[in-house]
Amino acid sequence: MSKEENLKILQLLQEGKITADEASQLLAAMEKPTEAPPAPEPEKAPPPVGTGGTDDFETETLARARAKIAAARERVAGMDQQLAAAEEQIEEAKKSPDPIGALNQALKGLPGAKSIAGSFRDFDAGRFASNAAKQARKLSKQVTDSIGSIDINLSDITQGFQGEPTLEQGYEVTLNVPSGGTLRIKNPFGDITVQGGDFPEVRAAGTLRVWSATPEEAQAVAEAVQVSTESSDTGGAITVSGSVKAKRIQLHLKVFVPAEGVKVSLLSPSGDLSVRGIKAAAVTATQSGDIHLAEIAGDVAAETTAGNIGIEGVLGSVSARTTSGDIQAIRLDGASFKGESQSGDISLNEAIVPVITLSAVSGDSTLCGVSCTRLSVRTVSGDTKIQECDFDEEALLDSISGSLSFAPRASLVKGKLVLSTISGDTHLTLPYKTNAVLEARSKSGELRGKVRGSDGSLREIRGAGMSIVSESIGEGTGAMLVLSSVSGDIKLEQAEG
């Protein structure tokens, strides 16, 4: 076969007009000197230099080669005709009410069409949708963060447009709240900040700012705003009220309370809420404001719709819930931590909490430096990443299309670890001295990894498609590891000693 014919076949392969298998067959046919397909009588070549049987052998060989080349050219010409017809059908498919069906018909019978169909069969729509959702969520979070910064700037700009307040009026109230009682604070016109300290009684202060067309109108607005107090044997209340538009006024309250014995409950529609330095429970709720709870010795609860929640240095049970905001918690030591978010992220760091329960729809969940007895993390499309953490009894990580990553801090020698996904990937990194029984299964994903046996040597685990693997890690006693996925990949690795 000449160099030109060789290049022609390779060019057809590169252009996708023939498959790799077909190219291989053509090249093999050109090289093979037997079983030539029938072809028209080739032109007689000039006798080669030589004598006797050698001349006849070379003449016959060249004839067969030329016959095969002619047959290959005919086949290529037929392929060109098929491709030209398919291109016309593809153009018509654009106008068809069933473009997918028309496209399938256009590809039917073409070289390489089987490979294309195979690619569509292997296409994992769930994983594709999951990756798209993750990218969309990241973009949404970037936009949300940018809008948050813009909101701050717009607030300053709006106040700049409003100019100086038409009226400013200070408020200060005091009341006694019995030890063990609850102080309820409600403010529809601004933030609420509670600070615990060495105070004999509760004292609240704030400045009312009013923007109005005339001083007389501003005075009328101020008179409509009331800051009232109420005391009882079970607690007390500070309530800001007034039948005026919130956009025209602003009243941020700062409340000083005794550090010990006074529980607080804060409520504001759009203001930020903050509690710091008390030895009692704190309950906070707002619609669009942020919540910050710090240095509290007592149970806390925080709920907001669009705001973020920050919790640090709490000795007590924690419950945090938001719709689109993030939840960030650090340095916790209490009986339980419960975090719920729809599209926001949840992170927990440096905590000693026996029972941890996290739930998110599209937000990510991250834990680092956490010790617990029981751990449960459930997401729909959000990712879960846990590192430098340990548990005593059970850890359950579950997701539909989000990925799961778990790297325990201490060797797994007891308890049960379950990692389960539908289309998300799973990655488990085991400490060196791990004694466990492993059960891993995947329906269509890839399963791979290396684990150590009782002698310390590494054993390779590998499977694809419908795979079920049972292995002993270390002595094969103690912990129970269950990894499962439908179409996601599972990767397992063990640290060096």
- How large is the count of helical segments? 7
Sketch the major β-sheet: 29 strands, mixed
Number of strand elements: 29
Structural class: alpha/beta
Strand content: 35-45%
Nearest-angstrom radius of gyration?
Answer: 37 Å
Overall mean pLDDT stands at 80
Q: How would you describe the oligomerization state of the chains in this entry?
A: single chain
Query: Termini distance?
Result: 59 Å
Shape: elongated
Spans of 5+ residues with little confidence (pLDDT < 50)? 34-54, 112-126, 147-158
Question: Level of helix content?
Answer: 25-40%
Structural description of this entry:
There is one protein chain. This protein has seven helices and 29 strands. It has about 500 residues and is an alpha/beta fold. Among the domains are: about 5-120, no CATH class; about 165-270, no CATH class. It has a 29-stranded mixed beta sheet that branches. The radius of gyration is 37 Å and the shape is elongated. It starts with a helix and ends with a strand.
